[in-house]
Write a structure and sequence with these properties.
single chain, about 375 residues, mainly alpha, hpI Integrase, Chain A, 15 helices, 6 strands
């Protein structure tokens, strides 16, 4: 039996006389779903029901306007940036030749033709339309509008956000940063948080304990995004100063503003980031590189990939691996631990003679104590 789950509901799929039967059981229990599928097979075999005639797939234009956009506005009501991103993609698609096609007539070839006609735009802008199309078609399969998933390839050449800033670049950049971007950038570099996580930070999720503190991330793309992060001294100093300047609040945004979200957002960040680049001698980079720099530095300091994934809020270790580039010393230390402390290739005395790091009790790392978040 071909039972599979979409969201909280089980579906079944099987072939009957060359025809694909795919239907939702509208049940969340797998045993009940199997019984429903078995019942459908039995009725088909006994001739009590025929193969149900499928409704024609809707045209992309009507599907986007009637189904996809309302879903996006409801699903991401608390994330105006996400809603605007998909709405922007929808506007691009509605102006294209794809808008008049039925969903089951759309394929990757048509998507690439759509991308080619937008060749005067950046890859990021083109991919806004392609990502919207891909998401809309995946939902169409989930909702039973079409039977077969459609793979949509993204345009190549999007700006890569994996540059690592040097300490000198960071110092010069911060010196030219206006507020509140200066404080936001400091937190990004000191925690490896996503920009959106810092923008929407609230005081109930900031714990200052006198000499350090913790930041609790309560929302994100996946469950892995919900995590607790300790503060390095620079981050602690910024947040303590911010807290005191706002009369030590227990509620509200850390970075309030008059934006539609009520807090500092990516639009304001983009403007202030540009001013900082113009006012410093630092080569241009994407704001997201501040997060990438923090995670790369953590990996270089010896943080293993699984711990780094927890810090970054990644749901897959595959994403985290691009920050980890083990050097020979790291490999040697790993084998030394496996062998009970024996050094491979260099004795401790030889390592000291060569100026290499000696790993032992004095060189170990200490895991910070996690304190409960303030209620």
């Amino acid at each position: 039996m071909s039972i599979y789950k979409r969201g909280d509901v089980y579906w079944y799929k099987f072939m009957w006389h060359g025809e694909l039967i795919r239907e939702s059981t509208k049940q969340g229990n797998d045993k009940t779903a199997r019984k429903i599928e078995a019942g459908h097979r039995t009725r088909l075999a006994e001739g009590l029901v025929g193969i149900r005639e499928r409704k024609p797939a809707p045209v992309l234009r009507s599907y986007l306007e009637d189904d996809f956009q309302p879903y996006v506005e409801t699903k991401h009501a608390e994330k105006p940036g996400t809603v605007e991103y998909y709405n922007d993609g929808v506007r691009m698609l509605l102006k294209s030749g794809l808008a008049s096609l039925r969903l089951d007539q759309i394929n990757d070839q048509g998507a690439q033709q759509f991308a080619a006609r937008l060749g005067h735009l950046s890859a990021s802008r083109i991919n806004c339309g392609l990502r919207t199309l891909r998401r809309a078609l995946n939902l169409a399969v989930e909702w039973g509008k079409i039977q077969t998933p459609i793979k949509i390839k993204l345009a190549q050449g999007e700006r890569i956000r994996d540059r690592v800033l040097t300490d000198t670049e960071m110092k010069e950049y911060l010196a030219a940063c206006p507020q509140p971007w200066h404080d936001v950038a400091t937190i990004l570099r000191g925690t490896g948080m996503r920009p959106g996580e810092v923008f929407s930070l609230r005081w109930p999720n900031v714990l200052l304990n006198g000499s350090g503190g913790l930041i609790q991330v309560t929302e994100g793309k996946t469950k892995a995004a919900r995590r607790m992060l300790p503060m390095v001294p620079e981050v602690y100093a910024v947040l303590k100063s911010k807290w005191e300047s706002q009369n030590k609040p227990f509620e509200g945004w850390v970075f309030p503003s008059g934006s539609r979200e009520g807090h500092f957002n990516k639009d304001a960040a983009k403007d202030q980031h540009k001013k900082a680049l113009d006012g410093s001698k630092v080569k241009a980079f994407e704001p997201y590189c501040l997060r990438h720099t923090a995670l790369t530095r953590l990996a270089e300091s010896g943080c293993d990939a699984f711990t780094l994934a927890r810090i970054a809020g990644h749901s897959s270790i595959t994403i985290t691996q691009r920050y980890c580039h083990p050097q020979a010393e790291a490999v040697e230390r790993a084998f030394a631990k496996l062998a009970g402390g024996h050094n491979f290739g260099h004795s401790e005395e030889r390592r000291e003679e060569k100026g290499l790091e000696v790993v032992g009790a004095k060189g170990g790392t200490r895991t910070p104590t996690v304190l409960p978040a303030r209620s």
